[in-house]
Design brief:
The protein has 290 residues and is mainly alpha-helical. The chain has seven helices and no strands.
């Protein structure tokens, strides 16, 4: 296979026209590898077919890129531009084998290749369109899902806010009722207490006992307590003084039990006994006093 045929096949695989610039070929290559990516196909057969198509697409891109980097000519004849013309010239000017099946076969093959290239191009475009439609559908579904979730969340938030508002109103009503009940209870308790005090005062006033008109004797201020009390079991005729009865002085007593005392009590002119007589008289006087 000549270089011109390789370039023609590469153009056919990429779905480009012979002679298209390298920029267009690169754009077409990027689009095709996105369309025929194996991850886009769920089945194993689809992945295998996509991998085979990617191999052909990458090979065609490499052939054309190598030609544009090394052998491409901007002016004059170039295999990438003159492939179809050269093929047609060779067909017209070359040695004709006659009207046999060889020429018809070449034309049939060319038409078949062109039809295959167009079919692949249409398939790729249809796949790209289907991909774009699928992406658009997924995007719309995601937007609808987000909108629905946002709507549900907003509705839930509104319901929660309404429930919170109702709960606050209920709590406020309960607090108000409790305050009114406590106020009424306090007022009733205070009123009952005042009524009971008034009733008790009137009752005591109207049913007070009759007081005596006799003057109350003044309390005695005699706080004297005798030093000794007479027991009721003792003789009432005994003396209440703490000492015994006062007897006569020794000089007047008729009989003394002790001769010594009698001698001492006798009058004497002996001066040393005078102090004793004086002391004795002193004690006698104290006895007489008590």
């Amino acid at each position: 296979m000549t270089e011109a045929q390789k370039l023609q096949d590469a153009y056919v695989v990429l779905g480009c026209k012979p002679g298209d610039p390298l920029e267009k070929i690169i754009r077409r290559h990027k689009r095709l590898i996105m369309v025929w990516h194996p991850d886009r196909f769920p089945t194993t057969d689809g992945k295998a077919e996509a991998e085979e198509e990617l191999k052909q697409i990458n090979n065609a891109k490499d052939v054309l890129k190598k030609h544009f980097e090394q052998d491409h000519k901007e002016t004059g004849p170039c295999p990438c531009r003159n492939t179809a013309s050269a093929t047609q010239g060779e067909t017209r000017t070359g040695p004709s084998p006659g009207p046999g099946p060889g020429k018809r076969k070449t034309t049939q093959e060319t038409n078949r290749e062109d039809a295959d290239a167009e079919r692949r191009t249409r398939e790729r475009e249809a796949a790209a369109a289907a991909e774009a439609a699928e992406k658009e559908r997924q995007r719309r579904a995601a937007e609808q899902q987000q909108q629905q979730e946002f709507t549900e969340k907003q509705a839930q938030d509104q319901m929660k806010a309404q429930e919170d508002a109702r709960l606050r109103w209920k709590l406020s009503a309960c607090i108000g009722i409790a305050w009114i009940a406590l106020s009424v209870f306090g007022w009733l308790g205070t009123s009952l207490k005042v009524w009971w005090h008034d009733f008790s005062w009137k009752w005591e006033r109207d049913h007070a006992p009759q007081q005596s008109t006799q003057p109350t004797p003044a309390p005695s201020n005699n706080n004297y307590v005798p030093p000794y009390q007479v027991s009721p079991y003792q003789n009432q005729n005994t003396n209440s003084t703490p000492f015994g009865p006062v007897g006569p002085p020794p000089s007047e007593q008729s009989g003394s039990q002790s001769p010594l005392i009698n001698n001492l009590n006798k009058p004497s002119n002996f001066d040393p006994l005078s102090p004793l007589t004086t002391i004795h008289r002193h004690f006698a006087q104290r006895r007489a006093i008590f």
